[in-house]
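Hi both,

Apologies for the delay on this - the queue was longer than expected. I finally got the nicotinamide-adenine-dinucleotide-bound model through. Below you'll find the protein sequence and the ligand SMILES exactly as submitted, and right after that the structure tokens for the full complex including the ligand.
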Amino acid sequence: MKILISGGAGYIGSHTLKQFLETNHEICVLDNLSKGSKIALDDLQKIKKFKFFEQDLSDFMGVKEIFKQEKFDAVVHFAASIEVPESMQNPLKYYMNNTVNTTNLIQTCIENNTNNFIFSSTAATYGEPQNSVVNENSSLAPINPYGMSKLMSEKVLKDANMAHPEFKYCILRYFNVAGACNTYPIGQRYPKATLLIKVAAECAAGKRDKLFIFGDDYNTKDGTCIRDYIHVDDISSAHLAGLEYLQNNQSDIFNVGYGHGFSVKEVIETMKKVSGVDFKVELAPRRAGDPSVLISDASKIRSKTSWKPKYDDLELICKSAYEWEKQC
Ligand SMILES: NC(=O)c1ccc[n+]([C@@H]2O[C@H](COP(=O)([O-])OP(=O)(O)OC[C@H]3O[C@@H](n4cnc5c(N)ncnc54)[C@H](O)[C@@H]3O)[C@@H](O)[C@H]2O)c1
């Protein structure tokens, strides 16, 4: 197949690009490099050559031109704005980049007979769930514009599929993505990260002076929030499984997580253990909108697709994040 990976220069996109380059598919990448890394793309060209379009998705005519030229069979769509606090301050940026640009991309796919669409969605679509373990049928109630912009794109995909049944989608709702590739020098590059394992790795590598725990009075075993952390290479392989699923099945939605979680304190202890660095940790007030526990029910993706996660090991995830942080 000829596949376009949008956002392929970003964190998850570059890991997924690597895995797709190791298949027989022909790959192209589209990215505006606003957050992505050209260095990562140049490195990945060594695995197998691929076309790179430095292109902003908001330039609809430019995107349409590329589709006319290339005739893609599938799109794996990562490109998005992804920072929750920023989405509260600047919601229109999120609705424009995540929902409007995705809608245009979907329309362009339909116009050009590109009938397989893999979409990066998020556990943020569940908002603050009533149960700590959520499955794909749990209620969807995002509590920030980022989550809502993704949920709206899910709806656009579903409606487009109703009207054009030949156009199929696979929506992947990721939980807490972390770590870095174990075999290639790619990882999460952008500064001002807010994700716990990235921040802990930065502290261990001496790039930050301390880590804040936002609340230790939650109703959990040690009072800190629990999340389902998943290695980025396992998230990436879910896209290959998703594409394979679309070849034989109808459109579908899958949670992508391991189905169990760790507390903030457990992550910090693990990072300190694997790095051997006793970095400074301070307690801060709770942040608005942080559910105490958020874990995926990941049984659907395991039972319906060929996805087999390989890195369900918090020590390995933290170690890979720390090793990457020291070199990047
Ligand atoms: N990182 C996570 O924990 C997480 C969790 C759930 C879902 N997701 C989703 O996964 C996807 C990838 O996230 P990531 O962490 O790799 O983010 P990232 O910022 O590293 O990657 C996004 C990429 O898209 C590009 N991009 C953004 N807007 C663009 C535009 N208008 N035109 C062209 N390129 C554009 C950026 O330059 C960047 O390379 C996103 O859709 C995000 O919502 C991420």
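Main takeaway for now: Residues 196-227+259-327 form a domain with the UDP-galactose 4-epimerase; domain 1 fold (CATH 3.90.25.10).

I'll put the files on the shared drive as well.

H.
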